[in-house]
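Researcher: Following up on the earlier apo prediction. This time include the ligand. It's S-adenosylmethionine, with the SMILES given after the sequence.
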Amino acid sequence: MNCCRSQLCEGTNRFFSRWSKRYAKDFRKKGPDKIQTMILRGVGSDGSSFRHILDIGCGVGSLHLTLLTQGAQRATGIEVSIGMLEEARKLSIEFGVKDRVEYVAEDFVQVADTVDRADITLLDKVVCCYDNPKALLAASLGKTTGVYALSHPREHILIKLTFKLQIFINRLLRTSFHPYWHDWGVLRGMILSSGFALRYEDASFVWRVLVFERTPGR
Ligand SMILES: C[S@@+](CC[C@H](N)C(=O)[O-])C[C@H]1O[C@@H](n2cnc3c(N)ncnc32)[C@H](O)[C@@H]1O
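Model: Understood. Below is the ligand-bound prediction.
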């Protein structure tokens, strides 16, 4: 089934579906990657405190599957890539959590209204794959009652140039997908002004990890 309503979305589906088996193989072999390990540290290692995880652009499910095995109650994984979701479903069976996870093959922004609120929302390496980051953040922040964790490319000149070069090459070759370079400071400001406070920050050479928490009463 193809969920995509736009060409951009279809390009993202095709691109990431091609990589899905590789993502699943890596997760089976090595567990959460370096950035996911930082996110898990930032949200607190005990998944049992979470009742509903919203994992947007969940890939093969590395983050929510890890938290479900630690005792989180249930998760919703939303993905544009059909291939990624096929692998996530298989992994949820292998991990013995398939009855506690629901997968939605859609662009999150298009279906946000139909998604339950969550006490933790995850957006790992997703915002740089989407053309309208403000819509993605507004819709996901509105669904989050507790922890909001995301990773995005670091604001380093070398990383920016690498991304811009990649975007240029992909456009030149007319590939079905290209990444996006957004104003990360503006997006961070948007999260803070939506009633969230930063509680954890870490970075690798390429990625920045930010974990926020909704301020009580906001
Ligand atoms: C770089 S991959 C990261 C996957 C996973 N979070 C991880 O870190 O392994 C980005 C994923 O986000 C998905 N994606 C991008 N924008 C999306 C949106 N608006 N709704 C749902 N999925 C989206 C893409 O299909 C892709 O699989």
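Model: The chain has a mean pLDDT of 95.
Researcher: Noted. I'll compare it with the apo version next.
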